[in-house]
Amino acid sequence: MKITYSIRTATRGLLAHKSRTALTILGIVIGITAIILIASIGKAAQNLILGQLQTLGTNVIVVVPGKEPKGPTDPAITASMLSDSIKTRELKAIQNKSNVPKLSKVMPVVFGTESVSYGGETFRPMILGASELITDIFNLTPESGTFFTDEDITSKSRVAVIGVDVKKELFGQSNAIGEKIRIKNQNLKIIGVLPPKGQVLFFNFDKTIIMPYSSAQQYVFGIKHFNRLIIQAETEHDVPQTVRDVEDTLRALHNITDPEEDDFFVATQEGLSEMLATVTGTLTLFLVSVAAIALIVGGIGIMNIMLVSATERRKEIGLRKALGATKKHILIQFLIESITLTGIGGIIGIAFGTLLAFASSIALTFFMGIPWSFSFPLGAAAIGFLVSVLVGLIFGIYPARKASLKSPIEAMMYE
Length: 415
What we know:
Elements: H1 3-15, H2 18-54, E1 60-65, H3 76-82, H4 88-95, E2 103-113, E3 116-118, E4 121-123, E5 126-130, H5 134-137, E6 144-145, H6 150-154, E7 159-162, H7 164-171, E8 180-183, E9 186-193, E10 199-200, E11 203-204, E12 208-212, H8 213-221, E13 228-233, H9 239-253, E14 264-268, H10 269-312, H11 314-322, H12 327-368, H13 378-404, H14 408-413
Parallel strand pairs: 5-12, 7-9
Antiparallel strand pairs: 1-13, 1-14, 2-5, 2-13, 3-4, 6-9, 7-12, 8-9, 10-11
Helix pairs in contact: 1-12, 2-10, 2-12, 2-13, 10-12, 10-13, 12-13
C-alpha cells in the first residue's frame, strides 16, 4: 500500500471530527507558542543588554567586591552587594599610576533604592552615587541645569541630578532646578535634570537620582565602601595589562596570595558579555523547559484521543484488514494521524509565537521606552517543530500499535 494512500486516509479521519481535532492540537499550539515567545524575548533581551554594554567602550573594566559568582543562582551574587572589600584605600591605590600605569579613569559607584519626597509627593527611584566621570562613561548631558563637580564630591555637597521620570513624579510640569527634595531626613538641591535616556545596562536613568558618591555614602546609605569601581584603560589593547595590575594591587592590599581567595573580581566588556549571555541563556532555557510541559500535556491528550479514535473506528480497521491491509498499514495510518496533529499544532504555534513576540517588541518600545528589537528565534522554531513531530510520534505509537493489533473478525462484529 502506498504511503500517499495512508496519508489521504489519515487526513479523512482527522477531518471527520474537526472540532475534536482542533481541540486536540490546542495543547501543542500553546506549548510551541510559549517556547517561541520566550526564546524570542530572551534573545532580544540578550541583544539589548550586549548592545548597551558595547556603548561603554571596549576599554571599560569593572571591579566588583565579593567573590566571583559561578552561575546565575550562585549566592555570591547577593553576597557581593553586601561586601565591603572595596573602599577609599583601594580606590587611591588603583589611582596611583605606579600601580596601574595604563589607567585612564576610575569612577567609584554606590547604588540602591530609597524613598524621595517633595511637598506631598513621594517616589522611590534608584539612587546612584558616582563621580562627574559618569557623564563621559554613560554619555549623560543635563537637559537643564548642570552636573556636580569634583569640588562637590570633596565637600560632600547635598546636590543631585534627576531623571525625567523622577521630575515628572515629584514636580510635574514645574521647574525642578533649585528645588530641594528630601531623602532620609536630608535635603538635596536639584542642580540638573537629564533628558529621556531610558535603560542603560542595569540603570534606568529616567528613574534615577545621581549624586556625588561621597554624599550618597554619608547621607543616604551610611557606608564607607563602594559597590563598583568602573575603570577605563587608556586603550583597548591595554585592558589585559590593566586587569592584571588592578588584581595585583588589590591582592597586595588584602594580603591575598591565592587567587581562589580573592574578595573581589574584575570583569571586562568581553567577560561581562559572556556572563550576561550565560545568565540570559540559562533563564531562557529554564523558561522554555517550563513551557515544554504543555507539550507533554498535549502529547498525553493526543494519545488519549487516538485511543478513543481507534475504538470508534474498529469497523473501519476490521474492514481494511479484511480487504488486505496489514498491521503495518494500520500502524502507519494512525502514526500519520498523530504526527499530522502535532505537526499542524507546531506550525500554528510558531506562527502565533512569532506574532506575539513581534507585538511584545512594539509594546515594550512604545510603553516602556526600551529600544527593544524583534528577534525571530530560527533555531527555536526548527527545534519546536521537530519536537512537536516527535511528540506525535512518541505518544502516537501506543494507540497506533493497539489499533494495528485488533482482530478483523472482532472489529467487524463491534457495535
